[in-house]
Amino acid sequence: MHIADITMFYAPASGGVRTYLDAKHRRLSVKPGIRHSLLIPGSHLSEQDGVYKVPAPALPFGKGYRFPLRLAPWRNVLQDLQPDLIEVGDPYLTAWAALDARRQLDVPVIGFYHSDLPLLVSNRMGNWVTTNVEAYVSKLYGNFDRVLAPSQVMADKLTGLGVRNVFVQPLGVDLQTFNPGARDHDLRAELGIAEDTRLLIFAGRGSKEKNLPVLLNCMQRLGPRYHLLLVGSSMPAQVPDNVTVVDEFCPATQVARLLASADALLHAGDQETFGLVILEAMASGIPVVAVAAGAFKEIITDQCGLLCAPNNPLAMANAVRELFSRGNISLGQQARQHVERHYAWDAVVNSLLGHYHAVLGEPWPLTANG
């Protein structure tokens, strides 16, 4: 079986989609009888270890992202590769290139709905465009042979737009990179805080959707016994005294060290389609305090952390205090066990193979959403 993934969501500092594709590529590449090709944007046409870079112009101020403008180069690479199946990882030109290639290759195409496009566009341009974007999503994803969504909340949005053949396919976490053994007992000294200070962390992009002002307000309410470490690009410059900022993209091993060295993860984002950093924190052996919104209600159980009301710094501060009163260490241990059971990448890739066999005409015990 030859599987080809195609996406523009792949850059040096990109997030969940690249993590998913890299994990998948590593595991599929060593499975007997399977070939995996990955098509991503680049400055010029090249190939290395099954990763094909297709020319696309760089986005100004896009932090390494490139935006394909010509359909033909992507379609031509797919036609040359002759895959048995294509998976699309974004809703832009590469998706239409895959559908165009399908007409010549007569192979199934799967669409993975990683991001909530109508919500993203409305956040930046206002609600006046929502209806048109929803119509676009309905038309595009209605063309795929099967649609995968990382959470039930996303699957429900797609079916609400009239898209059929939608299946929930959660993502996974690298249990080797993110593990309690990555803990650095010197981190508190490095941050200049006392050993008994309760260290909280958020890792990710500092984009509007992450609701970082809620975290900062929460920290003001918690006071000096608690300290928050903000890790990632585009972080705020003005923060309370009990907040430290690492305003840069950090590699996975560095994030793993910081997560394992903290006492809990804080996340105020209320529009998450999945939330990989939640899994990474739990795999690192720390519990989570997050908002009861988006996909978090599906991922975070009572044994792994606490959920609180969205956009409510007081509710988040109270949840943090309750978390420590319940025992953050035992919750962190349970969180690690939870991701080991449900979110190992090997299990995720095996589930993906089930989807692939199904669209290729081989029966598989999966049930469509709704």
Which helices and strands appear, and what pairs or packs with what?
Elements: E1 2-6, H1 16-28, E2 35-42, E3 46-48, E4 51-55, H2 71-81, E5 85-88, H3 93-105, E6 109-112, H4 117-125, H5 130-141, E7 146-149, H6 152-160, E8 166-168, H7 187-191, E9 198-203, H8 212-222, E10 226-231, E11 243-246, H9 252-261, E12 264-267, H10 276-283, E13 288-291, H11 296-299, E14 305-308, H12 313-326, H13 328-342, H14 345-359
Parallel strand pairs: 1-2, 1-5, 2-4, 5-6, 6-7, 7-8, 9-10, 9-12, 10-11, 12-13, 13-14
Antiparallel strand pairs: 3-4
Describe this structure in words.
42% of the residues are buried. The chain has two domains: 187 residues, 3-Layer(aba) Sandwich (Rossmann fold), CATH 3.40.50.2000; 163 residues, Rossmann fold (3-Layer(aba) Sandwich), CATH 3.40.50.2000. Strand 3 and strand 4 form a beta hairpin. It is built from 14 helices and 14 strands. With 370 residues, it is an alpha/beta fold. The chain has an eight-stranded mixed sheet with strand order 3-4-2-1-5-6-7-8, with helices on both faces. Strands 11-10-9-12-13-14 form a six-stranded parallel sheet, sandwiched between helices.
